[in-house]
Design brief:
The protein is an all-alpha fold and 309 residues long. It is 74% helix and 1% strand.
């Protein structure tokens, strides 16, 4: 990971000071670096030790960071990882344009791999993520969203880059198609579980730990799984309260909604859905060699369910 950070620092070097300032501001915010770590762990599990793993780990982090910059503008977010978002600190135009810079720099770096399959995976992932962002925008303030539509968004918007990260490791290692698919399944399942738990934390987390304002999803009109399940389980009156809050993007009744979500068992059911995805990820690891790196991947999937930030 230290080598990935070195690549990131080198590739952020640009003659435009504002680009460097905004990029370093968000990348230095103390993120989990989960996607690069996945790529490195999977590369180790498959026995690949080449330098391209560092380059492509930096690429997926740049793509992820670009999506964060754009997301925060679209969502009008003011807090991420416990401090002001880039758009709050530098303004929306700078955030959007620096996000574009990170996308384009990532595509420059992809060329270093000199591998058309790598380009194909990352180009597809970037496109699917963009589709997921638009799908989520279309679903804002839609209280009729069901679990299948919710999963479609997060598998596009969040899980796709997890999937690409683990699939890239298989390509670098020259793995068989079956192993490549198992790696991709692991990444997709882990990414889905990660986002489902993230949605739980919007109603069960501690703002000082999560680094974001509680109720942000509701304010943005997002019908996430805790709310979807709560509406299915609650009384007609309580369901109507949640539905109206989603449609209006109103957090005035947030304490009452949190109480409904908890009383209906929607949080436990949402955690169970995340656990099922984590188990799917663990099952995919059976196709990998057993070593310290694959054990690290197993531990990551198991610990994800205990996530609090």
């Amino acid at each position: 990971m230290a080598e990935v950070d070195r690549v990131i620092a080198t590739r952020l070097d640009t003659g435009v000071p504002l680009v460097s300032e905004v990029s370093r501001y968000i990348i230095s915010a103390g993120g989990k670096r989960l996607r690069p770590a996945l790529l490195l762990l999977m590369s180790g599990a498959l026995g690949y030790r080449g330098a391209q793993r560092f380059n492509l780990a930096a690429v997926v982090e740049f793509i992820h960071t670009a999506t964060l910059l754009h997301d925060d503008v679209v969502d009008e977010s003011t807090l991420r990882r416990g401090r002001a978002t880039a758009n709050e600190s530098f303004g929306n135009p700078a955030s959007v344009l620096v996000g574009d810079f990170l996308y384009s720099r990532a595509f420059q770096m992809m060329l270093d791999a000199d591998n058309m399959r790598v380009m194909q995976i990352l180009a597809e992932a970037t496109n699917v993520i963009a589709e997921g962002e638009v799908l989520q925008l279309m679903n804002m303030h839609d209280a009729t969203l069901d679990e299948a539509a919710y999963l479609r968004v997060i598998r596009s918007k969040t899980a796709k880059l997890f999937e690409a990260s683990t699939r890239l490791a298989a390509v670098l290692a020259g793995s068989t198609p079956a192993v490549e698919e198992a790696c991709a399944t692991f990444g997709q399942a882990l990414g889905t579980a990660f986002q489902v738990i993230d949605d739980v934390l919007d109603y069960a987390g501690d703002a000082s730990e999560t680094g974001k304002n509680l109720g942000d999803d509701l304010r943005e009109g997002k019908a996430t799984l805790p709310l979807i399940l709560a509406m299915q389980r609650a009384t007609p009156e309580d369901s109507a309260l949640i539905r109206n809050a989603i449609e209006a993007g109103d957090t005035e009744k947030l304490p009452a909604i949190v109480a409904i979500v908890r009383a209906t068992g929607a949080l436990d059911a949402t955690r169970a859905a995340a656990a099922a995805e984590a188990q799917r990820a663990i099952d995919a690891l059976k196709a990998m060699p057993s070593n310290s790196h694959s054990q690290g991947l197993l531990q990551l999937a198991a610990q994800l369910l205990e996530r609090r930030t």
